[in-house]
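Reading a protein record of the kind used here takes little practice once its layout is understood. Each number in the token line that follows is a code from a learned vocabulary of backbone shapes. One such record is shown here in full, so that the layout can be seen directly:
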Amino acid sequence: MPVVVVESPAKAKTIEKYLGSDYRVLASFGHVRDLPPKDGSVDTDNDFDMKWEVAADSRKHLKAIKDALKDDQTLILATDPDREGEAISWHLLEALAPALKKGAEVSRVTFNAITKTAVTEAMGRPRQIDQPLVDAYLARRALDYLVGFKLSPVLWRKLPGAKSAGRVQSVCLRLIVDREMEIEAFRAREYWSVHARLATPGGEEYDAALVSLAGKKLDRFDLATADQAAMALSAVTSRDLKVTSVAAKPASRNPWPPFMTSTLQQEASRKMGMGAKACMSAAQRLYEAGLITYMRTDGIDMAPEAVMAARDAIKAKFGETYLPKSPRMYKNKAKNAQEAHECIRPTDMMVSPDKARLTADDQRKLYDLIWKRTIASQMEAARMERTTVEIASPDDQVGLRATGQVMLFDGFLRVYDQGRDDDDGEDSARLPAITQGEVARLVANAFDDDLVKAREKGGDPAPAPAGQRSAPGLLTNDSAQAAARQHFTQPPPRYTEATLVKRMEELGIGRPSTYASIVTTIQDREYVRKDKNRLIAEDKGRLVTIFLLKYFPRYVSYDFTADLENELDEISAGDRLWREVLTRFWKDFSKALEGTSELRITEVLEAIDDALAPHLYPPRADGGDPRECPVCGAGRLNLKTARSGGAFIGCTNYPECRYTRPLSSPDGEAPVGDRVLGEDAGDQISLKTGRFGPYVQRGEATEEVPKPPRASIPKGWDAATLELDRALQLLSLPRPVGPHPEDGALIEASIGRFGPYVKHGSKYANLPDVDEVFTIGMNRAVEVLAAKQVRGGRGAAAAPLRELGEHPDGGPIQIMDGKYGPYVKWAKVNATLPRGIATEDLTVEQALELIAAKAAKSPAKAKKPAAKKAPAKSAAKTTTKAAAKKPAAKKAPAKKAAPSKAPPKEG
């Protein structure tokens, strides 16, 4: 029977069910070959000849396919319908070539959804492998390899702590670093706005904002100080006001197009806080379950039959009023979009989220998002009315404006509204009935609550002139009819995964299918960290970016990277030759590499120090030298690196002067200088700033006490206002709470790497507030520890996702959920589930294979549990046992040592 090859076993199982017993469907488990992670895999001296290697895990899968081909030499390659899928088919054909006899039939089929209709129709339209697509893959893989394996070693040698560079990875990192430097260079600018509460003759109230003063339109920064705001406030409250015009304009909003890969990742991040990697993993499961179409696509068009199915679903669920007269058509504006690919949509529009029967929370939420977006994309536009009311004084010295919006018909918004990365300031307030020419009366005491709230926040209010009241950031007239509010311009926000993917897409950098792995890689390399869903550049990532900008500026250029992507797309279209693109790239890139061969580390640090000088050493308020050491006054500040790869600013007068401060401070705050807080028990208590931030110290380092007691300043505490009593509290930690009432063991409270906590023996429980460390009593401590034990936490045994049964050698086989995905556990053997295998589909036989393969790699772990005696087995189980142990019996061939710092593979 013909042999059909797909990537994943879950996909194979579903497709075999659709095709029936006339076909044999096998899985390749993804790529079967790749470039060995060592120098020379791409031979630049031999026309970029590429040396491929079959992965150890792939040999058994290839053997299964070869064995199946002995019975029938008809091979159908049915891998994914994208560029990567085409490459996998090509690799399979190359690897299987020796097993194919003369006259063997080989064909390629693609389907956008795993449904019976899509699969059977695809089988009726076979084709050959698309060579231009393969050529584009070869060029991309060679480029990524050359940058990774040629540039990364330069980083290792010239920049301590650097781990890797990549063709797209480094450009993505630059985006984050550039944004961080923008934030640090940002200087807030003050401005004020004036608002009034007005009432119609009938007593209905509404708000209006001052838009003109002294006959001139107000710009954002025209009211720059509290004094100017007070004058404007007085001008508003001292005049009669009248409505000069009321304009109501109809408006409409059209729905967004269906999802493609990048927009799905962005919306999953905005609405669910789901990272790009987690989003694609959940989408993969939905695709393999036949619920959605292929999830790696940059197309937004929808098949005609799907459009009609969506319209039928809209009519059935929402009625004819929500159905536009004609179907909506969408076309991607991106130059490199693969228009042959459909958008990401449900395979059956009538399967609403409540009917999908999904148990996994992430899959259920993602399907709900995809279904709603798809249905909404074919719905009627939302219709609204936007009203603008102009109010002015009779002398035209004061002009105010009130805006509002009324929804007339919700249209597609009944189902779905796209999330926003930042507030767009759209005014949707309802306005009462207002008539041109009517009096606009100021409402007394309208801003009293605002005054109270502003005063409760604390701080120093601006002085209020006669007839006005003030609170921090707020001024009102005595009757609180109008208010002036203080504002400050905000720095550009740090990227989220959603906004980073959006920016990369706008610049034409990388491909949608690679964004998830790239964002994950720069976090794994510790170049970037994620905090509250925002991506923050670490010092290590900043140094790598500055190094590359200094010595390899072209290869982290946004335009160059985007142009190279365009060339790769031209290769896939058959308009360019891939070896010519590589030749041109390598000619210039190799020269750039040669130019760094004689560089010394000290030269590199000096160059980076000079490049970062405006950010590291901003001008001082007193006009002094910004590089002068603030402690000794004799040394100069310069950049230093630690063995860990981190960076800090230190004094050249070391070791006489031990002043240090971090390269960057959180939220762009200026570093706090060293100062003495006071004395305690004869010791000087000092506030110092080190490479990891501010800390307090008791005494000074001596030969007898080389490491005096220290304590870091907790997050949320202001080091600039820290006083002696608070410093002594920190230095007294850990604080004993008392003996536990059950066993008498001491309970302690302290602050650790992960924040404030209480500790009882080996058990830890986090506290919500740092200050509670110094006040927590016994009852509260026991309660927190007990709650942690009930919840389970760090160190608590996790419950298995599934119990598969007993291993032939004794002991349970379980599927666990780990940090890097699900894995099979038996005794001390943990075997990761290959990509494409769903936890609910895994069989005992497959689990035994995975365990045996893992045990063969780590013989020391493959010991059966000593506590259990293996029970007697039936003949069938004995056979399984022998088969499972067979790989471990073979002597593993000697492996070639791989480089300890292999750079990442990029798509």
Q: What stands out?
A: Residues 131-158 form the longest helix (28 residues). The chain has six domains: 3-129, 139-186+493-603, 190-254+384-488, 261-377, 733-791, 797-831. Residues 190-254+384-488 form a domain with the Topoisomerase I; domain 3 fold (CATH 2.70.20.10).
